[in-house]
# Entry
Amino acid sequence: MTSQQGLPPRHNGLSAWTTRRWLRVGVSVALAVLAALGAVGLWTTIRTSDIADELVNTRSPSLTYAVRLEAALVNQETGIRGYGLTGQRDFLDPYRQGVTDQKTAVDRLRELLVDNAQGREDLQQVLDRTQVWQQRIALPIAASPAGAPAALAAERAEEGRNSFDRVRAALAAQQEHVRTARSNAVKNLDRATQLRNWVFIAIAGVIVLVAALVFEGLRRGITDPLTRLGSDARQVARGNFAHPVATTGPADLRQLGADMEAMRRRLVDELAFSEQARHQLDERAADLKRSNAELEQFAYVASHDLQEPLRKVSSFTQLLQRRYADQLDERADQYIAFAVDGANRMQTLINDLLTFSRVGRVHNEHRLVELEPLVEDTLSTLSISIEESGATISHDALPAVVGDTTQLGMLWQNLISNAIKFRHPDRRPQIHIGALREGDLWRFTVTDNGIGIDPEFADRVFIIFQRLHTKDAYPGSGIGLAMCKKIVEFHGGTIAVDTHHSPGTRISFTLLADDNSPTDAEDPRS
# Structure
C-alpha cells in the first residue's frame, strides 16, 4: 500500500492522455485540416489559372481572328465587286490581301479551336460557303480581262450577293458562338476567382479557429495546470507545508503534481522528525553547555586549586631534603627526588591540559596573520634550544593567512621544538619550512632530518598524551602534536605525517589563505 502513495488515480480514455500525446494529436489534426484546406486552395488557384489561360490564350484570340477572317472576306468581296464593275486592276489588290489574311486567320483559328468542336464546325461552315462564293463569283471575275467591266459580274450580281450574304451569316454565327464562349469563360473566371477568394478566406478563418483552439487547449490543458502547480509549489517553498498540491491536467502533469504532493507530505514528515530532533539537539546543546561550564570550572580548579597543593608538596619535600640532608640515607634522598619529580610532572601535565582545553575557546580572534614575523618571533623564543642543538632552520617566503595569532604561534613553536627535540644523535638538525598555494588553502610543511616516525604510528602521534619514547629519552608530556592537530582543525585545515618522506620527519598541514594572496599553486621561492 505504501508504494502507491503519490500516484494519481487511474483514468481511461482521453483523461489518460499525456501532454505529448495531446500535442501530437492536436498538431496532427491541425496539419490535416491545413493540408485539406491547402489542397482546396491549390485546386481553386489552378482552376482559376486554367480558366484565365483559356480566356487569354484561346477565347479572346479566337474572337479576334474570327473578326479578322470577316474583315479579310469583306475585303475580298469589295475588291471583286469593284473590279467587276470597273475592270481596273487596282481593285484586285484588296482581294489578294484579303486572300492572304484569310489564310493566316484560318490557320490561327484551327490552332485555337483544336479542342473546340463547335468552333471547328462554325469555321468549316464559313470556309465551305466562302469556297462556294469564291468558286462561283470571285475567281471567275478576277480572271476576267482588265480594262472593261466584267460581263460575268453583271450576270451573277444577284447570285454573288446572295452567296456572300450566306458567308456573312456563317461569320455572324461563328462570332456569336465565339463571343458566347468567351463570355462564359469570363463568367467562369469570375466564379472561380470568387470561389478562390472564399476558399482563402475560409482557410484564414480556419487557421484563426485552429490557433484559437490550440491556444485554448494549451491554456486549459497545460498552462493553467502548470500555473496552479507552480503556485502550489511556491506556497510550499514559502513554508506553507500544509498547502496541498493540485493534480490537474494531462496524465503526466497529474503524475508530476502527485509526485510533488508526495514530496510535500514527505517534507511534512521530515520536518516533524527534524523538529523532534531539534528539540533533542537543544537538550543536548544545553547539556553540552553545562558540560563546558563544568569544564571551565575544572580548568579554573586545575589552574589554581590543584597547582597550589602541588607546589606545596614540591616545596616542602625539597625543604625536607635540605634540612635533613645529613640525617637521611641515599634511599631516602632518592624517594624525595621521586616525589619532587612527580609533583613537577603533575604540574606540567595540568598546565599542558589547561592549554589544550583553551584552544578555540580562550583565543578565538580570526584576523589576517603575517606568518613571516610570527615564525621569526618563534625562532627567537627557541633561540637557546636552537643554539644548543646547533640546528639550521630555513623557510620559504611565508604568506599571510586568516587565523588567531596566539594559537598559530603555539602551532609553530610546537612543530619547530619537536623537530629540534627529536633530532638524530649522529646528525646536526636541519629544519625547513615550506609553503605552497593550493586553491583557497596554503599547504605548509615542516621537514627535519631527525629520528623520524614509523608509518604505523603516523596517526597515533596526534592523540593526546600518546608517547612513542620514554620520558627519560625525550622529555615532554606527549601533548604537543595533539595540540597542533586541534589548532589546525580549529582553523579549518588538516594535518598529517608524510609517511613517504625519509630520512627524518615531515609534518604537512593546511591553513586558509588570505584573499589577496597569490593564487598560483607554485613554490613561492620561484
Remarks:
- The longest helix spans residues 157-237.
- The chain is about 65% helix and 5% strand.
- The beta strands are 367-370, 392-395, 400-403, 430-438, 441-447, 495-497, 506-512.
